Amino acid sequence: MVQGHVNLNTEKTEQWIQEYVDGWVEFFKKQTDTGKVADYIPKLEEADPNSLGITIIGKKGTEIRSGDVEHEFSIQSISKVLSFITACMDRGIAYVLQRVDVEPTGEAFNSIMHLEVKGHQRPFNPLVNSGAITTSSLLSGNTSDEKLEPLFQLMEKIIGRRPEIDIDVYVSERDTSMRNRAIGYYLLEEGYLESDLGVTLETYFKQCSINVTTDDLARIGLVLSNDGIHPETEEIIIPRNIVRIAKSLMLTCGMYDASGKFASYVGIPAKSGVSGGILAVVPPRVRENELPFLSGCGIGVFGPALDKQGNSVAGIKLLRHIANSWDLSLF
Amino acid sequence: MVQGHVNLNTEKTEQWIQEYVDGWVEFFKKQTDTGKVADYIPKLEEADPNSLGITIIGKKGTEIRSGDVEHEFSIQSISKVLSFITACMDRGIAYVLQRVDVEPTGEAFNSIMHLEVKGHQRPFNPLVNSGAITTSSLLSGNTSDEKLEPLFQLMEKIIGRRPEIDIDVYVSERDTSMRNRAIGYYLLEEGYLESDLGVTLETYFKQCSINVTTDDLARIGLVLSNDGIHPETEEIIIPRNIVRIAKSLMLTCGMYDASGKFASYVGIPAKSGVSGGILAVVPPRVRENELPFLSGCGIGVFGPALDKQGNSVAGIKLLRHIANSWDLSLF
Amino acid sequence: MVQGHVNLNTEKTEQWIQEYVDGWVEFFKKQTDTGKVADYIPKLEEADPNSLGITIIGKKGTEIRSGDVEHEFSIQSISKVLSFITACMDRGIAYVLQRVDVEPTGEAFNSIMHLEVKGHQRPFNPLVNSGAITTSSLLSGNTSDEKLEPLFQLMEKIIGRRPEIDIDVYVSERDTSMRNRAIGYYLLEEGYLESDLGVTLETYFKQCSINVTTDDLARIGLVLSNDGIHPETEEIIIPRNIVRIAKSLMLTCGMYDASGKFASYVGIPAKSGVSGGILAVVPPRVRENELPFLSGCGIGVFGPALDKQGNSVAGIKLLRHIANSWDLSLF
Amino acid sequence: MVQGHVNLNTEKTEQWIQEYVDGWVEFFKKQTDTGKVADYIPKLEEADPNSLGITIIGKKGTEIRSGDVEHEFSIQSISKVLSFITACMDRGIAYVLQRVDVEPTGEAFNSIMHLEVKGHQRPFNPLVNSGAITTSSLLSGNTSDEKLEPLFQLMEKIIGRRPEIDIDVYVSERDTSMRNRAIGYYLLEEGYLESDLGVTLETYFKQCSINVTTDDLARIGLVLSNDGIHPETEEIIIPRNIVRIAKSLMLTCGMYDASGKFASYVGIPAKSGVSGGILAVVPPRVRENELPFLSGCGIGVFGPALDKQGNSVAGIKLLRHIANSWDLSLF
């Protein structure tokens, strides 16, 4: 719970932050007992529930890595943020938002009933499955590869390598996700899908199966923190108004049914996935103390033991502790 | 720790801002046609649909007033924020959040069905009616006056005078709000109410009937922006962790079924009421441009013509325009 | 056009039926373990869970009584049938059905959510609480006593004495039924109630608190079986088109969430109450076998141990056994 | 409106009934304006909205045909009754009812939300789509043809020829029914389907595409009226306990969201389909007047103009009129 008087430009300070983060990663690693690794497909089930890793990359170049940061894991629902961004870049914000709303919902992420209760209204937001599948359908292209090309290019610009799909994960997702097919056919009937359902679902399952590391997520978070501008090249990678909506969505809907609690207790835009990953964004803040990362940073977390809402048990605890120590909350 | 080189203390800058705001208030006043004044009680129905007023009070003391700022109007749902804050101050955050969650909901503000669908779960959040009534029941005291005393004292510290209840509004609310009674009895059966239902509803109707001005709302917003500290006396009026949850709730749930859109397009914590008031909070921001109010401000708006979600038509347009011009969004 | 060669008027046959029923009452009395006496008010909680009694009164005058037929118990939800009948006699079928539909619902008897999901539609039917409260509001009169007078007179004509309200039950119902008050206020807001809510609920609670015996229920059932005509005086007590709708409602909606199963496995119109009473109606049937009661009968059952749907555990078993033995099903 | 004293065995009586029915068919043919032919597939859209035909076949051999009885039309949802019957004959009632309940629901026939609200409970009944698809999955066989063979054989025994599938209808159903695929995948995920989803849906779409005439429906109705026994050969075609549940289901759930009203106003088991067909069953009744068809009959109706619930506008009016004239109601 210490803050105070850190000068991020000195090596000494970085060392201090590194030790601080290492200590808490060790501490929260031991608190994964209440969680459970996702087991609906084999690859996810293989994960070590006691893993915990975090990468923090600050706007000024500071990079902190701690714990199990070497793992590759499938991006899962975190891809919904990127898919929404590329759909907006491709079709325009107005076009996308006519087909998917940006309102939080109290229903489960895989709910169909809200579509039926509301009666012929677009899905609540792009971060629930109905909205994410609709968003995938909006991507240009006749095949899933064509549709995902802009997303791949965007990721490559940010993480410095072309991302790869985990074929085992993809095949498992494709062959087991009956609920997503149910949602897909419902959306098709309601007229929300703009591409063939088979291609749409293939796109959705592929985007969920992209492999990432905590470093990748931190780099993505940093670009979002930095209003869409690459922190080194200063290139505008994502238009700012799209970044803004993406961060707003992450804050209001990013952490499944615990989004409100995460906003209240942590207070930064974040999106989690069922593989245990969390992408978090710290916008620049004004604070009177000299705390780390006040000029903004991106954070990537991996901790595959999930709580009952589907979020990384240890990841949330770690983010909450750090955010409160360093006063990172937007609020 | 940079805030830009606008010096808000110079008369010239303030004059420029004043003229700018005046111009847009005039402009948006003429765009109230799509809205409709609330008509479920006589006092609200009397309001002039073309009214529009705004007060902005900055941390450094700048005060901007424009349009119809002289009106008194009932605070309505905006009181839910203050009631939540006083309940947390009175009973502790943990106690309150065991009885009311902080999750956004896709259901209407006056929904009962979410309680039935979810089955014996606490109300979604303190800003929907079921959560607000539960919150009012948590306030200490045997009478509505005893229960509201801390809220009155809090408001008095902020706005500089003891607030008054509009008796006509209170009597109308009390005598017409059948849905709130339905919600109240449902909550009573489910065991969420901690005080007599009659007293609870009386408390709720009274708190909704408190008269405020745009100045009052701006001053409240400024204290929330300033982490609960009075900007002049520097007294801690509200503990910071409570302020933080309150602002998070405003962002995720403050604008009825348009909360997600408001977060995406405006991006600041706000709470609206059916009388046409909006309480908005601008936390301090880091921006490289020289824009006004980057060190934080509170905003009060009054514009009684409402859109179909129940938010001030012109008020939202005005806030969106200003927030985008001055880059006030959190995201 | 008479069937069957059983002559129910002979002492020998009656004796045989009596022994048969006695045997099965004894048998099913021992099968009440899975049930539970209603415990939300003290008077109901006092009931002996092992009680089981039945009265069968045939059109031709045969009367069979077996088990605990001497008990008085509150009529509870069975009163909804009588209240619907008197409302139709008082206001006309068309008037009543414009305010309450006659459709079965998959929701619980005390659901509010169906009103919200369907959006400004009348309650599903007069046998769920929302429909029953609406029906009670339609009864003429300014007080609950005035409203219930026709119902009392109707019952008196059938059971031969003026029925009495169990004051303890009434007071308990009135003071504990928060859900019914919630429903009442919801209906009030939606505009379905035609009398003061307080008077309406008083009426509803009073009608539920009328004391009856299995004999009384059997006599009521017999009149319904006999198309509304008193079996002795041959007076038309209830118009036939109203009796028909009442029996249809009992078949489709009379046994709470087990109505469909009761229709499938027993196949006769029936209405149960939470005190353990069942009113059942056997219309005249054509059968080639020589079975008892083919010319129609009324049945009253009392067995206070309830299954999880709220129906008498032993009562349903007994009715199912008898109906199948004697081929009483409509189908 | 009075009839009476008809001796069905004389030619004169039959002639009188024929003329009576002819008159009312002509009359109700002109009352199809409020209806609309189903237009979701081309073949249904081709139907003449002013068509109306009826066949009544009595237990004693009387056959009445009137209006457009020569049309072949697809059986659509009426097949759900036959599929339920063959599934019960194949797997046993208990097995089937463990997977599909027999409770009416207030939700639409193509609802998914009830599955989500109730949470892992079997579909409400075999006459809503979720229950019918589940039922089709229970039929033995590895292909849709194998699965449907018993249904075809059952129909052949009753209607005297092997029924045929309308290929155009089948192809259209298969290619357009996205909602049914959504339901199918939902059921698959919940574990209710016992055969491959593709085969299950193929089976379901094929059974809906079987061509019938009003004569066929009347013959099926007669067998159901006659407790499953062929009226001429006296062979037991369907076990009686299955017939009983089928009739009970038709009465409580057979006419979509108007089932309760049909039970109240007409009072006989019936099942409608979107092609405008109605299968109705009149069990034998005891009445003091000598009215036609009191010993039971089957009725087939065709009238493709549908009301908003999906039932034949003119068909319902005609059935209601006849049932009331001849006192056919069960109640």
UniProtKB/TrEMBL annotation, chains A, B, C, D:
<dbReference type="InterPro" id="IPR012338">
    <property type="entry name" value="Beta-lactam/transpept-like"/>
</dbReference>
<feature type="binding site">
    <location>
        <position position="180"/>
    </location>
    <ligand>
        <name>substrate</name>
    </ligand>
</feature>
<comment type="subunit">
    <text>Homotetramer.</text>
</comment>
<keyword id="KW-0007">Acetylation</keyword>
<protein>
    <recommendedName>
        <fullName>Glutaminase</fullName>
        <ecNumber>3.5.1.2</ecNumber>
    </recommendedName>
</protein>
<feature type="binding site">
    <location>
        <position position="77"/>
    </location>
    <ligand>
        <name>substrate</name>
    </ligand>
</feature>
<feature type="binding site">
    <location>
        <position position="204"/>
    </location>
    <ligand>
        <name>substrate</name>
    </ligand>
</feature>
<feature type="binding site">
    <location>
        <position position="256"/>
    </location>
    <ligand>
        <name>substrate</name>
    </ligand>
</feature>
<dbReference type="Pfam" id="PF04960">
    <property type="entry name" value="Glutaminase"/>
</dbReference>
<dbReference type="GO" id="GO:0004359">
    <property type="term" value="F:glutaminase activity"/>
</dbReference>
<dbReference type="GO" id="GO:0006537">
    <property type="term" value="P:glutamate biosynthetic process"/>
</dbReference>
<keyword id="KW-0378">Hydrolase</keyword>
<dbReference type="GO" id="GO:0006543">
    <property type="term" value="P:L-glutamine catabolic process"/>
</dbReference>
<dbReference type="InterPro" id="IPR015868">
    <property type="entry name" value="Glutaminase"/>
</dbReference>
<comment type="similarity">
    <text>Belongs to the glutaminase family.</text>
</comment>
<feature type="binding site">
    <location>
        <position position="173"/>
    </location>
    <ligand>
        <name>substrate</name>
    </ligand>
</feature>
<feature type="binding site">
    <location>
        <position position="129"/>
    </location>
    <ligand>
        <name>substrate</name>
    </ligand>
</feature>
<feature type="binding site">
    <location>
        <position position="274"/>
    </location>
    <ligand>
        <name>substrate</name>
    </ligand>
</feature>
